[in-house]
Amino acid sequence: MKTDKQLYELFSAQPLWIFELTGLKPPGRCELQSIVLKAIEQQADAVVVPELIDEPLTVVEFQFQDDPQIYTRVAIEMALVQQQQSMRLVQGVIFFRFPKHDPQTAPWSQIIHSYSLGGMLESLAERSPEHPLVAVFQPVLQSSEQALAAHAADYYHQIRVSDAAETLKQTMLDVFVNWLEQRLRDKGKEEIEQMLLGELPDLRDTASGRDLINIGRREGRNEGISEGIRGVLLSIIEERFGVVSKELHDRIDHTESIDTLKRLVQQVVKIESLDELKW
Length: 279
Fold this sequence. Notes:
alpha/beta
């Protein structure tokens, strides 16, 4: 999976999450910058720059695969960033996807803070299960694609109803949908559309969502969409409650409103009895 661009977008939108995840002292108002290291003509892609000059700069690296030189590279970036920033205090942070990716290179592993992203998000989920970051990273960390597909709409909903500011929320939704598409490459756009069925009206508000459901084409083939949703609805009812009665089958077949069908799908995954179904 390609994650660098999305990680930068995510933590640029809310750099203080780096400190919430790690437990490091938050520096107050700050921003995530990409700083050109003139001495080696390369970039430090993620440096947290606090407004208060007595707070340390934080060089951040996300490492999701094996790299035996990661600590050395971050140490060099720390030194060069410090030189270019008038010798301000500096610290380094490496997020590994899993502990197995951490080479623990001495002496830098005693100087640079390192964390397992998977472990940190598990801890965050225990402390604050509704935190949107817990949902955003599921396409990256979830080991089972089947489980990811089954709960994708729940994760999307968790982000959408979070207390985050609207601009931050939209960034998270875009990142989540992008990663979901990358992870579930064997599924077409329409399959992912059905997976996120209950959240489709809100997908229109995100760049990834607009691309995902291809709104322009979708509105020209409502009947096909209705038929697809009817099939999903009947499958869920049969799986949860057994054989679908002829009366209920006919009523669903004659329901043309896409909004009504979506609402029925949202209900049928939660109710305990078909008597609770509200049309």
